[in-house]
């Protein structure tokens, strides 16, 4: 019996040892397979956008961007999958992009925009695939497709010469400009260039074309942009009966100092547009209700203030009556979509570091949060009204398509385009924290710890400062300022939403105007001290980086870093001299609102808050980054900063992109951006490489 017991114990111990050895091998392999993210990882991720549910509710069409690092571009692919999940299939393939998917009313065909023959034109393809058919042969690129409900026409947007009465005139003028050896521009008024391009006398207009092809009709003629320039959202819509177009347009003479976009309606057969909005601020994103009774849009009350609260306006088409639906709700909305029964609106908007999905009924002010976490968008409602489809990203995952019951519940993930690849990456833990800022105001921040964070160890820290200034860090993925990629070398990354940030009430947002280096600066410094107090940051190895307003704040800190709290800075597209910025930027409404006028009539705030006035204090090593095509914060701002740093004898470096604007978008340029930024911080903050 003793021998039997010994043998049993021996066999049991042997099985345990074998199991432990196997577990160790499996654990070691998994540990080795997960690595901190590199730029090569980031650039391989697919970028999912533009979700559209078919009118019969059975299919989802979407596009995904596939970076081509060798070609230095991002190519967009068109895919279709069942709404209930299952295999997706790519509809068109080849060395060209396919964007803007739009379903035919019978759910059999998808219209899309592709550059497959050089210019971006409208094509159609059966939902099961096959050879695409070209619809338009326009003289220039087109975008933004809508399909009328009767299936007979397509709506699109293109840039035209407003003095031209037809396509032939436009075609001749485009050809003459392209053939000319002279590339000069002549301007007689402001806003002659915008964002990253010169207008050249052209205007954005909305067209309608038969689905079989043929001559396109200009629905918004005149010397105005319709829709106006926008970095997000579609500012036009077609009525359910296919007879009317609603669109946004600014008819003020001095567009550079006006945000007065108004909503107009015009028959699809053509005619004189009718203005239906009344706000002196910006009215955008018109959407017809499915029953045709209403048009809803987003409206701002204050003129010249692009970050005023966007509330929902309801226009009753039969009577012309206007009603505010969210005037008592302290949320600024960014996107809206109707329920099929025309009784509910689905909306998105910044809220305490998230971009939730909300619902709002026609009763008004009864906002309910439908999806709370993540950065959500691209709303598309199923025709039966039971399901909402949308994209969602977080700080640890790029966009995927999700669905949620419109009555509420847990969102369901439908696509997993990056899941297998992301499983190989070791991400830093994301935490949220609150602390007391200036004037005893509670301030919110995200903290991203380095991968494989070790308790008791102290890490260098990078403070990331968002742009806007009326913007916010959110629980969403970014390819340009990716917090995980900043954390990967071994940094604690801190993203504070200080005074001026969106999502914390309109008063909080308003408090930065006229106070660019005031309370917001205190909020940021108190945020740094708060994170230091948590015990895992080395207070002698702290840097800061920011772009646009974030670059401005870095420049402000550079002149006020008297305690040498920060050991290195990165200023991307940052404002340096507020007066010269005013003289070269394009959207003058922004600077005149923020600094209460122009610099010759009201110079006080320009002088008080301009970083260049503190250049004598510059002593912190600084990397300066700027793009030549940046017309929002013109390149001279970065060049002036670099000159001052060099003349002051401060360790500094200039990274200049001749082919980029405010954002660095081309894959190889982005790689150089991250490489240079990481090398700069490594020199002065000396992180220990995460293994």
From TrEMBL:
GO biological process assignments: proteolysis
UniProt keyword terms in alphabetical order: Hydrolase, Protease, Serine protease, Signal
KW Hydrolase (keyword) present: yes
Segments forming a coiled coil: none
One function term, GO molecular function aspect: serine-type endopeptidase activity
The Peptidase S9 prolyl oligopeptidase catalytic domain, residue ranges: 477-686
Pfam families per UniProt: PD40, Peptidase_S9
Record-linked SUPFAM superfamilies: alpha/beta-Hydrolases (SSF53474), DPP6 N-terminal domain-like (SSF82171)
Gene3D superfamilies: alpha/beta hydrolase, TolB, C-terminal domain
Top-level taxon in the UniProt lineage: Bacteria
Family assignment from sequence similarity: Belongs to the peptidase S9C family.
Protein name: Prolyl oligopeptidase family protein
Classification lineage: Bacteria, Pseudomonadati, Acidobacteriota, Terriglobia, Terriglobales
């Amino acid at each position: 019996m003793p021998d039997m017991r010994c043998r049993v114990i021996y066999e049991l111990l042997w099985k345990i040892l074998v199991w432990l050895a196997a577990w160790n091998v499996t654990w070691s392999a998994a540990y080795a397979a997960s690595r901190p993210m590199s730029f090569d990882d980031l650039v391989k991720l697919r970028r999912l956008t533009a979700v559209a549910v078919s009118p019969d509710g059975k299919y989802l069409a979407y596009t995904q961007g596939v970076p081509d690092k060798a070609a230095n571009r991002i190519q967009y692919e068109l895919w279709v999958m069942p709404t209930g999940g299952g295999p997706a299939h790519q509809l068109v393939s080849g060395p060209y992009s396919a964007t803007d998917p739009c379903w035919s009313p019978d759910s059999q065909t998808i219209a899309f925009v592709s550059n497959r023959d050089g210019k971006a034109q409208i094509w159609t393809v059966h939902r099961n695939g096959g050879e695409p058919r070209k619809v338009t042969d326009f003289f220039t690129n087109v975008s933004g497709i809508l399909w009328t409900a009767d299936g007979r026409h397509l709506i699109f947007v293109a840039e035209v010469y407003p003095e031209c009465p037809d396509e032939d005139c436009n075609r001749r003028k485009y050809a003459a400009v392209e053939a000319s050896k002279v590339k000069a521009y002549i301007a007689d008024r402001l806003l002659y260039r915008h964002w990253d391009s010169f207008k050249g006398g052209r205007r954005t207009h909305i067209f309608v074309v038969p689905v079989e092809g043929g001559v396109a009709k200009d629905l918004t003629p005149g010397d105005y942009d319709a829709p106006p320039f926008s970095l997000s959202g579609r500012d036009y819509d077609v009525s359910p009966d296919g007879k009317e177009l609603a669109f946004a347009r600014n008819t003020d003479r001095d567009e550079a100092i006006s945000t007065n976009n108004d909503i107009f309606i015009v028959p699809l057969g053509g005619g004189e547009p009718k203005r239906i909005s009344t706000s002196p601020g910006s009215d955008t994103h018109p959407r017809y209700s499915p029953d045709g009774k209403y048009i809803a849009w987003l409206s701002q009350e204050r003129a010249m203030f692009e970050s005023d609260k966007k509330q929902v306006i309801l226009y009753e088409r039969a009577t012309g009556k206007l009603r505010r639906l969210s005037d008592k709700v302290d949320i600024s909305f960014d996107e809206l979509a109707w329920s099929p029964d025309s009784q509910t609106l689905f909306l998105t908007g910044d809220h305490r570091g998230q971009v939730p999905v909300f619902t709002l009924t026609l009763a008004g002010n009864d906002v309910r949060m439908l999806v709370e976490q993540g950065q959500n968008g691209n709303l598309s409602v199923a025709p039966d009204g039971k399901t909402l489809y949308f994209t969602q990203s977080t700080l640890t995952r790029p966009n995927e398509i999700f669905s949620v019951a419109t009555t509420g519940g847990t969102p369901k993930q439908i696509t997993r385009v990056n899941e297998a690849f992301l499983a190989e990456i070791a991400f830093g833990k994301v935490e949220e924290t609150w602390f007391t800022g200036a004037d005893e105001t509670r301030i919110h921040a995200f903290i991203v710890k380095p991968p494989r964070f070790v308790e008791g160890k102290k890490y260098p820290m990078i403070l990331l400062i968002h742009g806007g200034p009326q913007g916010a860090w959110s629980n969403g993925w970014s390819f340009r300022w990716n917090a995980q990629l900043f954390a990967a070398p071994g940094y604690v990354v801190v993203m504070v939403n200080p005074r001026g940030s969106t999502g914390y009430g309109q008063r909080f947002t308003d408090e930065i105007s006229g106070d660019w280096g005031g309370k917001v600066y205190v909020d940021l410094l108190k945020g740094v001290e708060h994170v230091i107090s948590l015990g895992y940051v080395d207070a002698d190895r702290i840097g800061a980086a920011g772009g646009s307003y974030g670059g401005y704040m870095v420049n402000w800190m550079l002149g006020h870093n008297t305690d040498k709290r920060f050991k290195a800075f990165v200023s991307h597209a940052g404002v340096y001299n507020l007066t010269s910025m005013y003289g070269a930027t394009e959207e003058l409404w922004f600077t005149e609102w923020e600094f209460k006028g122009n610099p010759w009539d009201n110079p006080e705030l320009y002088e008080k808050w301009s970083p260049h006035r503190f250049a004598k204090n510059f002593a912190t090593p600084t990397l300066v980054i700027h793009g030549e095509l940046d017309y929002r914060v013109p390149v001279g701002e970065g060049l002036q900063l670099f000159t001052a740093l060099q003349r002051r004898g401060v360790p500094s470096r200039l990274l200049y992109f001749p082919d980029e604007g405010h954002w660095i978008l081309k894959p190889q340029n982005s790689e150089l951006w991250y490489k240079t930024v990481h090398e700069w911080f490594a020199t002065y903050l000396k992180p220990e490489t995460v293994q």
